[in-house]
Design brief:
This protein is of the alpha/beta class. It contains 14 helices and 10 strands. Strands 3-4-5-6-7-8-9-10 form an 8-stranded parallel barrel, surrounded by 6 helices. A two-stranded antiparallel ribbon has the order 1-2. Helix 2 crosses helix 3, helix 2 runs parallel beside helix 11 and helix 9 packs across helix 10. It starts with a strand and ends with a helix.
């Protein structure tokens, strides 16, 4: 397990991060995603830490707060040294019935961090992330509220999730101009079956030196190789009851078909190849893996041992490459000469 710096900071996080969305259950979709209780969750946390993971990711809306509670108890019950565990959580979603119990307002963010700290039973959060974009709240208000939390010591670093490139750059510009804490990470969906991030967001992340945390790296289980083209799972699976994130099914199955012989050549699961591909991408800081069973998590952790050669990476790139889209194809056409100059030193 390698460790990588988070954004422009000196904070190092493991290249795999344990996601806790399967903790707690609760009502509705959370029950479908996972309903692990304290003992089961602690087994997973212990397995992850034993495998070299130092990074845990949760959110205030996961299982309506139960995920944070279980995660906090697990840290204490397993006697994990606080300074050796990086804890990330998120704010944005609805945590109550009122019109102000949601969004990226100063009020909701400050109330949210207090509630998360209480559920996690911690005195600070290492990485506090805005979980989604709020069109009703000025970005200035959000950035200033996060800076307040950093200055007060409740939060060490800040990040964002599910924002567009222009939104992130605008927030960074505001923070730089006003001397406020800047985002150090983006948590986003990125897989062999969904490489949309590469059009605008990946170049922005590289230019701004923002770390990338990948959620749903197996496309909701589709890239585990356990689903047939009829959509049914060999051993039961989350996508049967919770078809998310959206995926072009034919594209996804074509990617799985390309991964199978590579997985066989390495003697590993298809899922490990999907995770290994992400770990080979320069822009990726950490890949969030979730599980319901220790053996499933152990298989995911073993993806760090898989080394794909140039031919295998080219095969996967060919099977999953994005179709040309404007203005990307114009950049490719007009910038060739200058790219050659750069390459020549």
């Amino acid at each position: 397990m390698r460790n990588r710096a988070l954004g422009r900071t000196g904070l190092y996080v493991s290249e795999l991060c344990l996601g806790t969305m399967t903790f707690g259950g609760g009502e509705g979709m959370w029950q479908k995603i996972g309903a692990l209780q304290q003992n089961e969750a602690e087994r997973l946390v212990g397995t992850a830490v034993d495998g070299g993971v130092n990074f845990l990711d949760t959110a205030d809306v996961y299982a309506e707060g139960l995920s944070e509670e279980i995660t906090g108890h697990a840290i204490r019950n397993l006697k994990l040294p606080r300074d050796e565990i990086v804890v990330a959580t998120k704010v944005f979603g609805a945590t109550g019935q009122g019109p102000n119990a949601r969004g990226n307002t100063r009020s909701h963010i400050i109330d949210g961090v207090k509630a998360s700290l209480k559920r996690l039973r911690l005195d600070h959060i290492d990485l506090y992330q805005i979980h989604g974009f709020d069109p009703a709240t000025p970005i200035e208000e959000t950035v200033e509220a996060l800076d307040t939390l950093v200055r007060h010591g409740h939060v060490r670093y800040t990040g964002v999730s599910n924002w567009a490139a222009w939104q992130i750059v605008k927030a960074q510009g505001i923070a730089q101009h006003r001397g406020l804490a800047q985002f150090q990470s983006l948590q986003a969906y990125y897989t062999l079956a969904g490489r949309d991030l590469e059009r605008e967001i990946v170049p922005m992340l590289k230019a701004e030196r923002i770390g990338l945390m990948v959620w749903s790296p197996l496309a909701g289980g589709l890239l585990s190789g356990k689903y047939g083209r009829d959509g049914k799972s060999e051993q039961g699976g989350r996508r049967v009851d919770f078809d998310f994130p959206p995926v072009d099914a034919e594209r996804g199955y074509a990617v799985v078909d390309a991964m199978r012989p590579i997985a066989q050549a390495h003697g590993v699961s298809v899922a490990r190849i999907a995770l290994a591909w992400l770990l080979h991408q320069e822009v990726v800081t950490s890949v969030i893996v979730g599980a319901k069973r220790p053996e499933q998590l152990e298989d995911n952790l073993a993806a760090t041992e898989v080394r794909l050669d140039a031919r295998q990476l080219a095969t996967l790139d060919e099977a999953s490459r994005l179709p040309p889209e404007y203005p990307g194809w114009m950049f490719e056409r007009q910038g060739a000469y200058r790219r050659d100059q750069i390459a020549q030193g």
